[in-house]
Amino acid sequence: MLSSTVIQRCPYCYEEWCSSKDKVIYEPLIWFFEAVTLCHWHNQSLYQQCPHCKRELPPLASYSRPGYCPYCLKWLGVTANYPSSDKTPPSKEEIIWQTWVIKTVGELLANTPHLPKPLKREIVAQAFCRYVNQFTEGNTAAFARMLEIPKNKVWMWQMGKVLPELNVILKICFTLQVSVLDFLTQETLKETSSKFPATPQNQVRDSSTKKLEVKFDSDRTQKLLENVLQTNEQPLPMTAVAKRLGYPKRVLYRHFPELCRAISAEYVKYMKESRLKRIDQCCEEVKLAVRQVYTEGIYPSEAAISKLLAKPGCFRDKKVRAALRAARREICLEP
Ligand SMILES: [Zn+2]
Ligand SMILES: [Zn+2]
After folding, report:
1. Does residue 1 carry a pLDDT above 60?
2. Ligand positioned closest to the Cα atom of 102
């Protein structure tokens, strides 16, 4: 949840505090959260490294001066000779996502006295059970599908066997349109939490209309899908393609059914071909192994050959078993 070794900082904050007489230079608690990557006052990316010596910045130590790098001792605020940033400015989506993250993490921090700390597995488990019950009538599979998370993961969280990382909880809460605090503490779902999930990548909350608006860049997506088909790289399943493009798979299928089916067919074909290739390779290995074992005076049994193969399980395939019989026949061990 909290990063203890590295903390992120905003150079603009430092500069602002330095130039105003009544402000002290400090490290806001929010900078300690890995999930927070932007400064919400300046909409600028936070830095993990000193811009001068590029070393990762630890939390303020007793011997270091606030606002200065503990290694090269240079000022961390923006100045005239401040090194130019190699970071790309945050996108609109990132700003929206981060604004939400900062708000909900801030709310969590402000209410920490009322929360058992550190975050207990049972509390998170109860929250998941509540949401699975209320969103999908207790159906974990349907809930997991809605969030596009593997079912067994949700089940483990529900059972309290594993505690999801804060980043995961944040994404889920964003999708469910509920604050992390409400997620963990509210017994019943608020009226405002939508039954229709949003995803950080493609749904943008329009502040003027307060309606969920799906931003779908049709032309760009079509080009990207076409690229996937034309590339010489290893074919990917549609799930991976969807993840790469940042849209749910069903959205892609709805807009470009033919392209999606073609990509999927390519992947199936590739998987079939690579399976055949593997089997052929196994057959070749079996042939060599039979000769080797035989010259050592050992009977080429399935067990003896298995020991020499890269993938011992390949005798499950009948083509490989046939290759063994053929190899034995060649050295007159089988009629
Ligand atoms: Zn700032
Ligand atoms: Zn430094």
Report:
1. no
2. 1
